[in-house]
Amino acid sequence: MPEQKAAGPDLFADVNRVRDPSAMTDLEKKHLPVIAAPDKVAAGECFEVTVEVGKLMAHPNENAHFIGFIELYAGHVFIARLDLTPRRTCPVLKACVALDKAIGPLRAFAWCNIHGTWGADRAIQVA
Predict the structure, then answer these.
(1) Digit-coded pLDDT (tens) for 54-107
(2) What H or E segment, with its residue span, contains residue 4?
(3) Which of 5, 71, 77, 78 is deepest in the core (most CB within 10 A)?
């Protein structure tokens, strides 16, 4: 019997991103890491960044389907990581961040054990 392949894209082939923000699928809504941060910050001053997975539509948090980690970057510079267990956790990373200069957008990545890695960017201005 020939091997059957799952319909649709290979979610583990690359970082998944929302294709059309005006017409997001349920899959995209559940997995998009939503970044909340000020549009503009002062150089060297701390500000809060929140990255939430499941903000637009709840993501399951059970042994069979869960978010395993969330990572935050400024451009390509690593800032923070939150590792999660399948139960009794909420996929929300909060960090106080200080940037000396603009080094690119804030970038967040979240990994789902069934649907792969999902990414999002948010522009931030450092003055």
Answers:
(1) 999 999 999 999 999 999 999 999 999 999 999 888 999 999 999 999 999 999
(2) none
(3) 71
